[in-house]
Specification:
two-stranded antiparallel ribbon; mainly alpha; 60% helix; 599 residues; two-stranded parallel ribbon
Length: 599
């Protein structure tokens, strides 16, 4: 089937290709015919590529890696060919839907291969190998072989700075072997992007937001300035508490925070060290980790609870195949990619989750988040193939984050019986601090990852300075430092999945902004008069109806128009974050009195 498809596509490309380009300017009808053909071929190949990717991710062997790399290469050839041919129809007076599809065709791939023999296979092999190296990464610690899951548990629970340093550094030893392949892959995707008329891969990624690439970069800077003062207040408070716990020799009271002390391998969320930074005068009366365990939750039960949340908004139940085909726990008999992700294998109804869930608050949140992707996928399944996507990639993440935010609110936990009653206002600061340790601590990380890659793709940073540039940005945006000097061959960026797997990341920065906009809009629709952090969407079918109206549009129109459907706004706005956390920010300012904030 694949060889027939590629052969048919080659014939089609010739029909629309260079020879035809010597003729008169294409007509609108020819442009539409080209788009229809491209869309049909890409849709036909998509399911095969998704199934090979699923098998590779859930059963990592030499054979599944080979199959996935071959499918990826063939899909890349197919999509790159159509992307280049789409430029022939620039300036043709086509209808708005065809015009949007032509644009999306040009931007279809995040990692386009050069249009020359062997390049797509080389790129696919490199990227498959990088993902496999990350997914199977292990290191030795105190005579034991540790996986990333093992290392994450230690970083979350240990309060021994020597152990934290050793485990943090141990995981980062998996990355140096990836540097040469990563640099080569960047060269290839840059060449592919230039073949599509863009300056580099970073410009390609930034072109996916219905605005000029440089304007989008400026927009992310604007959003950061809205929330940066709050982040700096949180940083100052956390650093002081770490200093109280560990002393000046481990964590000085001024300057950057030591990354391994934050409870997370990448210091992207700090919620695991709540016990270290908790307010002395206001305690939380419950521990969600303990509540889940005490009430007999399992990965399946957590997923069923997440499904019930969406059902309460009026969404249809998950299909039977979801439960038959998803991977919710880490298998004991094989290597898998544990990084949680949501899949729509056939672009219709074969939705699944791939994850290694554990019974804890983090994964309770993640279940709700990943299901958000699945319900979004199902909502736009009736759209044409090129419109089967979110308004922009930040929307896909934000829908899941919106549900995840509700999953952590005391109001929701009471509604589903995990809590007997919601705590009083005296626990607002502990709750908001827990939320900020994950949400606000993430924001600079969500931005700087792609800031680094944009520099790599533009040539501003060469491979010899990859690590130096990485820590310069982490210091600038996050105020972080590694636990000790880094080796000359260190390639710390690739210790993060999204770098190794070439997944754009600024979507998460956008999503954390959108989710609070979505929350504010939903609570306003409900007529909620209380604080935003106590507003639960559970059981509100009116909210679900409006949410679905946004989701079902997919990527059929500019995201600004889709945002307006749900919130009435047409611009990303960080003020929803500051409004949600206003009581906490005032409290942090008071707590930081006398401290030398900044780094």
């Amino acid at each position: 089937m694949r060889s027939q498809l590629l052969a048919a596509t080659a014939v089609a490309l010739l029909a629309f290709g260079p020879a035809a380009a010597q003729d008169a300017k294409p007509t609108p009808a020819e442009a539409k015919a080209f788009v229809d053909k491209a869309e049909a071929d890409l849709a036909a190949f998509s399911e095969f590529a998704a199934r090979t990717a699923w098998v590779r991710a859930t059963y990592i062997t030499e054979d599944t890696l080979w199959l996935d790399a071959k499918a990826s290469a063939e899909q890349n050839i197919l999509a790159t060919g159509y992307a280049k041919q789409a430029a022939r129809y620039d300036g043709v007076a086509v209808d708005p839907l065809t015009a949007r599809k032509l644009k999306l065709l040009k931007l279809f791939l995040t990692s386009p291969a050069p249009d020359r023999p062997g390049a797509a296979k080389e790129l696919a092999d490199l990227q498959s190998g990088l993902t496999a190296t990350y997914s199977t990464g292990k290191f030795q610690h105190q005579g034991k072989t540790l996986t990333l899951n093992d290392a994450e548990d230690i970083l979350a629970k240990s309060r021994d700075p020597a152990e934290l340093k050793a485990v943090w550094e141990g995981w980062h030893t998996i990355a140096p072997p990836m540097m040469a392949d990563y640099a080569r892959a960047a060269v290839l995707t840059n060449e592919g992007a230039k073949g599509l008329g863009l300056s580099d891969t970073g410009a390609l990624w930034r072109s996916n937001y219905d605005m000029d690439p440089d304007a989008f970069a400026a927009e992310t800077d604007r959003l950061w300035t809205q929330v940066e003062p709050f982040y700096r207040n949180l940083h100052c408070y956390v650093r002081a508490r770490l200093n109280d716990r560990y002393g000046d020799a481990v964590q000085p009271r001024t300057g950057p925070i030591r990354a391994d002390l934050t409870g997370n391998m990448w210091a992207q969320s700090w919620g695991n060290i709540y016990d270290v930074v908790a307010p002395k005068a206001a305690a939380s009366s419950y521990d969600l980790d303990k509540l889940l365990v005490a009430q007999g939750y399992t990965p399946v039960k957590m997923t069923q609870t997440g499904e019930a949340f969406y059902s309460s908004l009026g969404f249809a139940p998950l299909p039977k195949t979801f439960w038959e085909r998803s991977m919710l726990e880490r298998p004991r008999d094989r290597e898998v990619t544990c990084h949680a992700s949501a899949w729509d294998v056939n672009d219709r109804d074969d939705i699944r989750i791939k994850a290694c869930f554990k019974v804890n608050a983090d994964d309770f949140y993640t279940v709700h988040h990943e299901l958000g992707h699945n319900y979004y996928q199902r909502a736009y399944s009736a759209q044409p193939y090129l419109f089967k996507g979110s308004a922009n990639d930040g929307f896909h993440e934000a829908v899941g984050d919106l549900a995840g935010m509700s999953a952590l609110t005391p109001t929701y936990l009471t509604q589903i019986g995990l809590l007997d009653k919601a705590p009083g206002v005296e626990e607002d600061i502990p709750f908001l601090l827990k939320m900020a340790l994950d949400k606000i601590a993430f924001l600079p990380f969500g931005l700087m990852i792609d800031k680094w890659r944009w520099q790599v793709f533009s040539g501003q940073v060469d491979p010899a300075h990859y690590n130096e540039a990485w820590w310069k940005l982490r210091g600038q945006y996050q105020g972080l430092t590694p636990p000790g000097p880094r080796p000359d061959d260190a390639f710390d960026p690739a210790a993060k999945y999204h770098i190794a797997a070439s997944v754009p990341y600024v979507r998460y920065f956008l999503a954390f902004n959108y989710e609070f906009q979505f929350q504010r809009a939903a609570c306003k629709q409900m007529g909620w008069k209380g604080p935003l952090h106590r507003c639960s969407l559970y059981g509100r079918k009116d909210v679900g109806e409006r949410l679905n109206a946004m989701l079902e549009r997919g990527n059929s129109q500019p995201w600004q128009e889709t945002l307006k459907v749900y919130s009435g706004e047409t611009r990303t706005d960080g003020s929803a974050i500051t409004a949600y956390f206003k009581p906490l920010n005032a409290w942090l300012i008071a707590q930081n009195k006398g401290e030398r904030c900044g780094w």
